[in-house]
Amino acid sequence: MDTRTSPVTLQALVVHNGTVTEITPDEVATYAGPGFVWMHVEGVGHGQPVVLPGYVPAMAASALLAGETRPRCDGIGDAALINLRGTAVDTMQDSDGLVSIRVWVEAKRVTSVSRHPLAAFGKVDAAMRAGKLIDGGDFVSTLAHAISTDLDPKVADLGDQLDDCEEMLGGGNIYELRRQIATMRSQAIILRRFVAPDRDALAAMAQLEYPWISKEDHLHLREAADRFARMAEELEAVRERAALLHEQLTDLRAEMVDRRSLAIAVVAFIFLPLTFITGLLGMNVDGIPFAKEPWAFWGVVGFCLAIALVVMGWFAYRQWLDD
To answer: Is the entire prediction scored with pTM above 0.85?
Structure first.
């Protein structure tokens, strides 16, 4: 896991009539003015204590600050707790490589917590500062859309890489291809581990009937859930295709070994009788026929070549030399 330390940062924004105002995190707990309030805490989980405002219930606060989470959505009273996973701004050393974002959503107030910077937050922050988010439904639908659109190219890239590996199957380096395919299969398994729960969490969020979740918000949530469902199917296809390619590479490797073994066996079979002949005629004893004849050496050479041709012809007749 990533053990780098980073300071806890807090941000609080208020949107009212299209005007965005920054307030201090301490003011969030007592803020009673009009508008929509978003408080974001980033960098939790590195040893620094974090205390959320008192309006967040104890159970929800515990879920927001938990060390390990998985995507989920729960309606609690007039509010909702939703956890999602999305791509990080920077490359992470975590095993899954995705950022957990936990959000406590109310009608006019949202509290979000993350451990690392989330790539999708750039779009959410821009929409917030532009005054486009006026309630919790707008925030969650915008966040879901941003996370899904950021993650979609990463999933598509896995499929493209696998297509390239399939094209290289006939002439590429088998050992390098096996390494690449194993890496892609591992990435697909890791991503699907969170993409499928993201889909379920957003589908559950779309089923909640709160006044602050408009019909348009429900539509955006269902659209994001559908995008996650498509990504989950694509990742499952990548995993199965990678497994099939790995089996094909294993078969190719076995075939290569068989061909090399056959070539060695053919050479050995050809030289076996030749070795016997040369060993027999090379004995340092009297009585070897034609030992004094001037043509004896070339005669033995020709006899050996004839035996080699006969053996090769026999292999060809038995079709043992065919690829």
So the answer is: no
